[in-house]
Amino acid sequence: xxxxxxxxxxxxxxxxxxxxxxxxxxxxxxxxxxxxxxxxxxxxxxxxxxxxxxxxxxxxxxxxxxxxxxxxxxxxxxxxxxxxxxxxxxxxxxxxxxxxxxxxxxxxxxxxxxxxxxxxxxxxxxxxxxxxxxxxxxxxxxxxxxxxxxxxxxxxxxxxxxxxxxxxxxxxxxxxxxxxxxxxxxxxxxxxxxxxxxxxxxxxxxxxxxxxxxxxxxxxxxxxxxxxxxxxxxxxxxxxxxxxxxxxxxxxxxxxxxxxxxxxxxxxxxxxxxxxxxxxxxxxxxxxxxxxxxxxxxxxxxxxxxxxxxxxxxxxxxxxxxxxxxxxxxxxxxxxxxxxxxxxxxxxxxxxxxxxxxxxxxxxxxxxxxxxxxxxxxxxxxxxxxxxxxxxxxxxxxxxxxxxxxxxxxxxxxxxxxxxxxxxxxxxxxxxxxxxxxxxxxxxxxxxxxxxxxxxxxxxxxxxxxxxxxxxxx
Amino acid sequence: xxxxxxxxxxxxxxxxxxxxxxxxxxxxxxxxxxxxxxxxxxxxxxxxxxxxxxxxxxxxxxxxxxxxxxxxxxxxxxxxxxxxxxxxxxxxxxxxxxxxxxxxxxxxxxxxxxxxxxxxxxxxxxxxxxxxxxxxxxxxxxxxxxxxxxxxxxxxxxxxxxxxxxxxxxxxxxxxxxxxxxxxxxxxxxxxxxxxxxxxxxxxxxxxxxxxxxxxxxxxxxxxxxxxxxxxxxxxxxxxx
Lengths: 474, 241
Prior knowledge:
The complex is a heterodimer. By secondary structure, chain A is an alpha/beta fold. Helices cover 50% and strands 10% of the residues of chain A. Chain A has a 6-stranded parallel sheet with strand order 1-10-7-4-2-3, with helices on both faces. Chain A has a 4-stranded mixed sheet with strand order 8-5-6-9. In chain A, β5 and β6 form a beta hairpin. In chain A, α3 packs across α12. The longest helix of chain A has 21 residues, at 16-36. The radius of gyration of chain A is 26 Å and the shape is elongated. Helices cover 52% and strands 15% of the residues of chain B. Chain B has helices spanning 11-15, 18-30, 46-50, 54-68, 79-92, 97-107, 113-120, 140-145, 151-157, 180-183, 185-202, 212-224, 234-239, and strands spanning 4-7, 34-36, 74-76, 110-112, 129-137, 160-164, 206-209, 230-233. In chain B, the strands form 2 sheets. A 4-stranded parallel sheet of chain B has the order 2-1-3-4, sandwiched between helices. Chain B has a 4-stranded parallel sheet with strand order 6-5-7-8, sandwiched between helices. At the A-B interface, α1, α16, α17, α19 and α20 of A face α1, α2, α3, α4 and α8 of B.
């Protein structure tokens, strides 16, 4: 485990206020999800999950076909598709377009894909101003932090912390009422919307048969982002493709419910192409671009099992239900995607050496797989990634004692007499516990897994006889 | 004429909680089964599998297959170890069709203890008596991989003098997670503290589960906190008279 990962986990666990904030906020989202997918509210929930899984599988297995169909339909409506292989490609495209059009100000709606490619940092480095317009993202941008959660970026911030942040960064009197804080952000952001040259959004779905992108949001900022500036750029991972507009009947029923426990989000926008004055259209951008990003996604395609990671619709349900996320929060995770989905995406997108301990930071309780609206088998993928980590060259040296221990384990477990003898020897050296459980062991035994266990738990005293001894004697 | 049952007591029950195994044997024998204990049994191999060492896990799994090949019906006092055999052995042997066929045949004959009682033996009242208030902890693999939810509750409902008080949330992990518990000890115990708060809110004096490993985690933390609440395997409750 990297020292950084270890440190972040410890720091988060030690912060009582943060613990309460994370647990409360995720608990609210979790309860809301459960209420809106309950059998009496959504009787076909399980069938919808099965359908969503089948649709995603079909789309991912025919990715080339549907992406080209999408491209043709976007171009036919006067939009442009830009294929980008990585973060540099995306930044280059945005920067060169901004330069050609003389653009200075970008407004952005919420997009994990742009977080993934560090878009703000990259464009700001070249003198452009890029402003987040989702309230949570705006707060995080002011705080110079990355999103804490896929859906609720500022989930860990209390209103008092937001008040302090606004006072410090916006130079205004302290305001602790969330409604008033929203109004403050709104006033600031309205000016940005009106002055912006470019609007950048993500896309929840790319619809192949119509060339439309679909955006799901609650604040209306994505609508302003995509319609007020003259140029709209939508940046999406290639896995966001779905074959037909009618498939949205499945996905839209699942997405908001899984994410926030809403039957539908407040706004669902279907955007296809720039404004067409010749058809009498009076709003929408003058230019419309869809950036299709690979950034490692195609590397997942050859593996039948692992490519299901690309089915993810970024609802965040796995985070809210995960007992690990609910303790260590979003910033302990080593990349922009946190929680169970982050634990499977990060090693596959960034390489397992990015944080080899990540797939192990799970009790494999399976709660994530149970709530995933597209039925990604996250626990199974975590197990596969664990195996990948141990098969890596780095593990040969990093895990040499553990590897040896498991070799010994396998030997012992296939030699029952030696296994029994080892058990007796362990009992002989263990302290008795004087009737209760054991709190401390002699120094010579207090290392490795025993020491780790004893850090927070007592150990059971060894029984006078093992089960097999008792069985033989009865 | 007596139907035969082989016990797979698991390594943790064998080495640390033999009374759980004895209680399980007692309950099954009272139902008229002939119980045996294949003496070569050790572990299912899950620790190696979950730690990423699939080749070592495969070695242990082969031993398990050999040990239980002759058993007609195998009963296990753990949802997690049962699930290792029924849900994960197939992954270990997916490239060996012959072994895979043996695994699949074995998987049909192995049962988690409460499932065995309700589904195979067809019993919900084993004639047990246990005065007091208990709460029930759902082990994650029993719950989510095996789909065991009502069986232990139906069995507990028929225990004389026992009052079951559900904790909220009952379905959240206790924090054990095998080697996770020692690879991330602070995180693991933080999860257990949340579990214990849920247990304490019920006012129950004991927490019952199907999995000795969850119980070890919970009891370890309860004992450290000096709590009087004790942990019991379902078999121990059902063996009480």
